[in-house]
């Protein structure tokens, strides 16, 4: 079974659940892991990275929940703002509602991975057996080394770093995932050579296929995994087996 482990849903024409499900069908992908999107307009990313536009800081968890209830092949991951004093309580509520992990967004919310609230969230995720998922923030406190440091402090919690770390090839992320049992890299937008080298060093059990819908198409990102010089069994782990185990989808 193939599972897209990284998609963002939003009540927008380009990021809707209906669009996503059609892409999954076109791609031959059976299931998807979905989290809130739309806080940044991915069609105009440079405007946000440069500071010309400000993001909508409210995660659309309700839209994700509604989408999952209507389409059981989708699995929800919640997003909370670590700067919110109620973030830990909110996450506990979402996990009680069936959300299967936590996504944090350092491009949207101006936190640091070393913040006390992030430590509380990491501890809570460990207690519930769900992963923390994030991309890099490309600023002090929210880069690969900061995420790795948090993962080392909470060995009972699993951590997934999106996009193979920082573009185009993050050797620090590769080295860390090779040496840590609880750190995994997600493949969307990753460079082919970086993915190949990471499989060699860390093994196929440490990589997770994702699409970064709606910015990329699931079939496009999946092709990268099919081009890897690995066995069919190893490919199956990357394309679904690893995330199925982390989210306990069995």
Structure description:
One of its GO terms (molecular function) is carboxy-lyase activity. This is Amidohydrolase-related domain-containing protein. The protein is an alpha/beta fold and 250 residues long. It has a six-stranded parallel beta sheet. It has a three-stranded parallel beta sheet with strand order 1-2-3. It has a single domain, classed as TIM Barrel (Alpha-Beta Barrel), CATH 3.20.20.140. The protein has helices spanning 17-27, 45-49, 61-70, 87-96, 116-128, 144-153, 171-179, 192-202, 218-226, 232-246; strands at residues 3-9, 31-36, 74-76, 78-79, 102-104, 132-134, 159-161, 183-186, 207-208. β4, α4 (87-96) and β5 form a beta-alpha-beta unit. The chain is globular, with a radius of gyration of 16 Å.
Q: What is the correct CATH architecture?
A: Alpha-Beta Barrel
The CATH topology, please?
Answer: TIM Barrel
Distance between the termini: 12 Å
Radius of gyration: 16 Å
Strand content: 5-15%
Poorly predicted runs: none
Shape: globular
Instruction: Please describe the biggest sheet, giving its number of strands, its sense, and whether it closes into a barrel.
Output: 6 strands, parallel
Structural class based on helices, strands and sheet pairing = alpha/beta
Compute the number of helices: 10
Identify the CATH class. Alpha Beta
Q: Let me know the CATH homologous superfamily.
A: Metal-dependent hydrolases
Protein name: Amidohydrolase-related domain-containing protein
Keywords: Lyase
Organism: Stigmatella aurantiaca
GO molecular function, one term: hydrolase activity
């Amino acid at each position: 079974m193939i599972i897209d482990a990284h998609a963002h849903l939003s009540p927008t024409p380009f990021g809707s659940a209906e669009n996503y499900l059609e892409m999954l069908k076109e791609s031959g992908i059976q299931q998807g892991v979905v989290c809130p999107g739309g806080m940044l307009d991915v069609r105009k990313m440079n405007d946000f990275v440069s500071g010309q536009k400000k993001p909508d800081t409210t995660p659309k968890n309700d839209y994700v929940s509604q989408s999952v209830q209507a389409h059981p092949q989708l699995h929800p991951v919640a997003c909370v703002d670590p700067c919110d004093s109620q973030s830990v309580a909110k996450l506990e509520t979402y996990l009680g509602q069936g959300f299967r992990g936590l996504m944090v967004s350092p491009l949207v919310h101006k936190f640091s991975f070393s913040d006390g609230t992030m430590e509380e969230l990491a501890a809570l995720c460990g207690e519930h057996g769900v992963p923390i998922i994030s991309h890099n923030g490309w600023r002090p406190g929210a880069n690969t080394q900061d995420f790795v440091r948090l993962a080392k402090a909470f060995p009972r919690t699993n951590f997934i770093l999106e996009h193979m770390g920082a573009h185009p090839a993050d050797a620090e992320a590769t080295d860390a995932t090779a040496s840590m049992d609880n750190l995994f890299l997600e493949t969307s937008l990753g460079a082919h050579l970086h993915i190949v080298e990471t499989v060699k060093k860390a093994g196929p059990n440490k990589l997770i296929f994702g699409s970064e819908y709606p910015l990329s198409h699931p079939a496009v990102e999946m092709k990268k995994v099919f081009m890897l010089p690995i066995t069919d069994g190893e490919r199956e782990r990357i394309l679904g087996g690893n995330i199925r185990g982390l989210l306990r989808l069995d």
